């Protein structure tokens, strides 16, 4: 599981910034902490354009570079108002009680990449530019040069796809954890999975049917179900998906309403919920990171609360890292203070984060009210609209 992310001169984060996912001394919501002491996720809240999405992007970038054949665009990720020509990212994980640390630094002037991989503080990969040495398979190390090391791609990716890290079980489990991760942008309706399983809604329903989703709806009293079929019948009419009998559509069935509602006619919130659920349920079962940007897009506050609680309760080896504007989630009955971060933007100094637990709010205090009143920062400073005389 992910324990830390450290960004330096990355996007809006000019200064070195660390997001910590290890638990603190809080005792509230023990179910939000995995057995290894790592938090099952965290939330970022703050004004628009404060840099929240860039934190999600810092994790997504690793997944993209490893599994999506993406090259590093040298100027795309460096902080535009930062000093120097390099940006860096350091990722810390805990895999089966073993610490895995992976660090990358990109020099945008020389277009040079540095990579270092450690397991339990033992250096296993050391790459500078187009030269690298790996100690993964051989203790004495294997040397690689420009014929093996691409100047704008991760050598970790090359090593993994060439060897699958067969000689190192911890690295195999680490890569599996990463591959089981999913990125979702609720506003743009983007769902990106990094393994072989397609988690788009239609593919999920074709493969797994509606039972798992409908069981979720029943358990939590949604008073609706979904059908995935060529046709659906209601009072006095029938809806057909198309001329081809193999063609299917999604229909909602609401309690006490004998009318099938086509997916495209449903509310944005219900559409987004249905798009989210395949990835949501998959990551919970497989273990991995669920990265969600704009989580509050179209959702009622209570629905967001339910989804977060469900994830924290059901997760054993999965994490939910998300951005939301729903301040009601800042509650000691939903998330622990060490799972909550505020984000602010400070002009040329860039973005900064503040972990709410660092102010040591008591379990009985109303964290949402404290946030709205400005105690933790990360709120917009708009002028109020004046009352009319």
Core attributes:
alpha+beta, 20 strands, single chain, Rossmann fold, 389 residues, 8 helices, 28% strand
What does this structure look like?
Strands 2-1-4-5-6-7-8-9 form an eight-stranded antiparallel β-sheet. Strands 11-10-17-18-3-19-20 form a seven-stranded mixed β-sheet, sandwiched between helices. The chain is 24% helix and 28% strand. The N and C termini lie far apart (57 Å). The mean pLDDT is 93. The chain has eight helices and 20 strands. It is α+β, with helices and mostly antiparallel strands and 389 residues long. It folds into two domains: 2-181 and 288-372, 3-Layer(aba) Sandwich (Rossmann fold), CATH 3.40.50.300; 203-268, no CATH class. It has helices at residues 52-67, 155-163, 169-179, 201-208, 211-219, 268-286, 301-314, 367-372, and strands at residues 2-8, 17-20, 41-46, 86-95, 98-107, 112-119, 122-128, 131-134, 142-144, 182-185, 190-193, 224-229, 231-234, 237-240, 249-254, 261-262, 289-293, 319-323, 340-345, 351-355. A hairpin with a 2-residue loop joins β13 and β14 (237-240).
CATH structural architecture of the largest domain: 3-Layer(aba) Sandwich
Name of the level-1 CATH class of the largest domain: Alpha Beta
Span between termini: 57 Å
How would you spell out the order of helices and strands? EEEHEEEEEEHHEEHHEEEEEHEHEEEH
Total strands: the figure is: 20
- What's the CATH topology label of the largest domain? Rossmann fold
Q: Widest sheet: strand order? A: 2-1-4-5-6-7-8-9
Largest sheet: 8 strands, antiparallel
Q: How many domains, in number, for the residues?
A: 2
Q: Average pLDDT across residues? A: 93
Kindly report the name of the CATH homologous superfamily of the largest domain: P-loop containing nucleotide triphosphate hydrolases
Outline, from the CA principal axes?
Answer: globular
- In which range does the helix fraction lie? 10-25%
Structural class comes to alpha+beta
Which parts are unreliable, with pLDDT below 50 for 5 consecutive residues or more? none
Organism: Eisenbergiella tayi
Domain ATPase AAA-type core: 242-331
GO molecular function, one term: ATP hydrolysis activity
Pfam families: AAA_21 (PF13304)
